[in-house]
Design a protein that fits this description.
Layout lengths: L22 H9 L15 E5 L3 H12 L3 E5 L12 E4 L4 E4 L10 H12 L3 E3 L3 E6 L3 E4 L7 E3 L3 H8 L6 E4 L6 E5 L2 E6 L2 E6 L1 E4 L4 H8 L4 H9 L5 E8 L14 E7 L6 E4 H6 L7 E6 L2 H6 L9 H19 L11 E7 L6 E2 L5 E3 L4 E3 L9 H20 L17 E2 L28
Parallel strand pairs: 1-2, 1-13, 2-9, 6-15, 13-21
Antiparallel strand pairs: 3-4, 5-8, 6-7, 10-11, 11-12, 14-17, 14-18, 15-16, 16-17, 19-22, 20-21
Helix pairs in contact: 1-6, 2-10, 5-6
This protein binds flavin-adenine dinucleotide.
């Protein structure tokens, strides 16, 4: 078939072709980095520097400790560790919101073991509230109670803060934004805007997105940089809103009201949950703190720099999301009472949309690895499994003495595949058992 040349953009013959920063050109550029090759023997008392204190970085530190290896976790969090396990508490009321990860399921036996321990230690518990799918007009279909849904007892962030509470070989440095990695004399030297952060025998990149791409761009780790560059991430808006009175949500036969719902068919909304009933029970007298999360499509349509959201965009997004709530609940237009508190946030690098499907990446020549949810999926479970896998890979490599690095290389060339799941991630076990209980598929009573 011949091409219709008349429809192609006119080219200015005097101008050099502009390639911008297309992914291809950046990948090519990252390939021009020279690979670091550490040949010096590994110290007998090695320390690993972990950049990122979300679920994957924390679990990596925990599992390195289980193998007797020390680590330092660096995290940018001003309010605390946890990354996308964020919980926001607004004083003096207080108002509490999980503003990214909402709950998680468990399918892997290793993750199950960890969650059992957290459960015994009072860090997590099951969420027994009604969760289901909500279609516009207020039609609620509850999900069956199995598989169990877990939440942090006081929210997700406190869970991340306590994961390391019983460790003794893990040092946490926060807030700290590692901005440079430099290999020197058999070690990695980390710094934050010129301020030294210490030196390490191996490093772990436990974060992703633009920040990781920048950090890796001139690190001497071209293979790792290339894999990171291949990752695509969605954007999701989070609207936190507190209401004096309960929202007129649907309830099911036993008078149990909706506490969390995957919203279907509404562009501006993919999830809504009542944090107050989720965390403090249905009898709580606290204000009703709701988290509303947008769809990825809406995030993309309304994408702006997350650090400086124009007020006009913020207004428009908030309005559209509250309108979405009205439609989802089947309420008349403009009848939803205004929240007395609201806060809007954009998760600019929210969830991975593709994955190499390998638990971790490790470059033994550069003594550097990557862990994160995206290596396996888009859930807290995949982040935890990735952290575990990388810790074991590094520990095996260190125990080997580092003499035959090739045996320990993993994930440096894996191709990426698209990821399926909800807009707010995957919930292993939930979808496979998604025979939504039709018997309970009752009309919402608003
Ligand atoms: C809106 C939203 C809703 C979600 N809902 C769910 C859910 O209900 N259930 C579920 O299972 N999953 C959910 N997820 C996904 C889940 O939150 C992630 O899979 C998981 O938290 C990822 O953990 P991580 O360790 O890979 O990365 P992150 O949590 O992103 O951790 C990376 C950390 O590295 C830090 N960092 C970045 N750059 C640097 C640097 N240069 N120096 C130092 N530190 C740095 C960051 O501050 C961050 O703390 C949701 C995600 C979003 C965005």
């Amino acid at each position: 078939m011949s091409q219709d040349k008349s429809k192609q953009p006119m080219k200015n013959p005097r101008k050099k072709p502009y390639y911008g920063t297309s992914r291809r050109s950046v990948i090519k550029k990252s390939f021009t980095q020279e690979q670091v090759e550490f040949t010096a023997p590994i110290s007998s008392d090695p320390v690993v520097g972990i950049i990122g204190g979300g679920m994957s970085g924390l679990v990596c530190a925990l599992y390195l400790e289980k193998r007797g290896i020390k680590s330092t976790v660096f995290d940018t969090g001003i309010h605390g560790l946890g990354g996308r396990m964020g919980t926001r508490t607004i004083d003096p009321q207080p108002l509490t919101f999980d503003h990214a990860a909402q709950f998680f399921t468990v399918s892997d036996p290793n993750f199950a073991e960890m969650v059992d321990l957290w459960s015994k230690n009072g860090l997590v518990r099951q969420w027994h509230g009604a969760i289901g799918e909500l279609e516009s007009g207020g039609r609620f279909s509850p999900l069956p109670p199995s598989p169990p849904r877990y939440i942090g007892v006081n929210g997700m962030r406190p869970l991340s803060e306590s994961i390391l509470s019983e460790t003794s070989l893990v040092n946490v440095v926060r807030p700290c934004w590692v901005s440079k990695l430099e290999p020197y004399n058999g070690r990695w030297y980390l710094s934050e805007n010129g301020k030294p952060c210490g030196h390490f025998d191996a490093i772990v990149i436990a974060h992703n997105g633009k920040c990781a791409n920048r950090l890796l761009a001139s690190s001497g780790l071209p293979l790792i940089a290339r894999q990171m560059k291949r990752l695509n991430l969605s954007s999701i808006w989070a609207l936190l809103a507190a209401f004096e009175d309960p929202l007129p949500v649907p309830s099911i036969a036993s008078e149990i009201s909706l506490e969390g719902a995957f919203v279907k068919g509404i562009d501006s909304l993919s999830w809504m949950a009542n944090n107050t009933t989720k965390l403090f029970g249905s009898q709580s007298s606290r204000p009703h703190c709701w988290t509303f999360l947008s769809t990825a499509a809406f995030g993309k349509q309304n994408k702006v720099p997350q650090e400086s959201i124009p007020s006009s965009t913020a207004e428009k997004v908030k309005e559209s999301m509250l309108e979405g709530v009205e439609i989802a609940l089947g309420l008349p237009e403009n009848s939803l009472k205004k929240p007395f508190y609201s806060r809007l946030q954009l998760w600019g690098a929210a969830l991975p949309t593709n994955s190499p499907g390998i638990p971790c990446i490790f470059d033994p020549c550069g003594r550097a690895g990557i862990c994160g949810d995206w290596l396996l999926g888009s859930s807290l479970e995949s982040a935890a499994l990735s952290g575990m896998a990388l810790a074991n890979q590094i520990a095996d490599y260190i125990e080997s003495g580092g003499t035959s690095p090739d045996e320990f290389a993993v994930g440096l060339h894996n191709e990426f595949q698209p990821l399926e799941g909800h807009d707010i991630g995957q919930f292993p076990g939930l979808d496979s058992e998604k025979q939504i209980n039709k018997a309970l598929d009752l009309q919402l009573m608003t």
